[in-house]
Amino acid sequence: MNGRPLSKEQIKQLRQLLITERVKCAEEIKSLAQDASKSPREASGDLSAYTVHLADMAADTYERELSMNIVSSEQEILYQIDDALKRLEEGSYGVCQQCNQPIAMSRLKAVPYASMCIGCQRVKEQKNKR
């Protein structure tokens, strides 16, 4: 971006990227939530009257918890995408919310919902590691 505002064509392209990403994310959440809501027997396809082995139940529980954690992460990305679309409408999209410098176009294409430049994002991640 090099300090210049986004062109109308870039805004159009990035809006489409955000919308596409939002649809994929919402579909993933829906799919994972449906899978996680199934009982262990339904998930395995075993609808017989035999009991389920304790190890199988533990594995199923682990898989459901993992799916729900992924849903949580996807939900967070969905919020970030919605926030990016809002910033796009307000005209503040593409500007780092930390240092107010333009976010590189290559970063916006890779992570269209990015709210920080790569430098500020690195600093934030380093702080979170501690």
Mean pLDDT, to the nearest integer, reads: 84
Helix and strand content put the structural class at: mainly alpha
**Cα shape:** elongated
Helix content range of the residues, please?
Answer: 55-70%
Contiguous low-pLDDT stretches (5 residues minimum) are none
Strand content: under 5%
Number of helices: 5
- In N-to-C order, the SSE pattern is HHHHH
Task: Output the keywords.
about 0% strand; about 130 residues; 5 helices; single chain; mainly alpha; elongated
Question: Can you describe this structure?
Answer:
There is one protein chain. This protein has 130 residues and is mainly alpha-helical. The chain has a domain at 8-93. Helix content is 68%, strand content 0%. The protein is built from 5 helices and no strands. The chain has helices spanning 8-36, 40-44, 54-90, 105-110, 118-129. Helix 1 (8-36) packs antiparallel against helix 3 (54-90). The protein is elongated, with a radius of gyration of 20 Å. The two termini are 32 Å apart. The relative contact order is 0.15. The mean pLDDT is 84.
Topology:
Layout: H1 8-36, H2 40-44, H3 54-90, H4 105-110, H5 118-129
Write a brief structural summary.
It contains five helices and no strands.
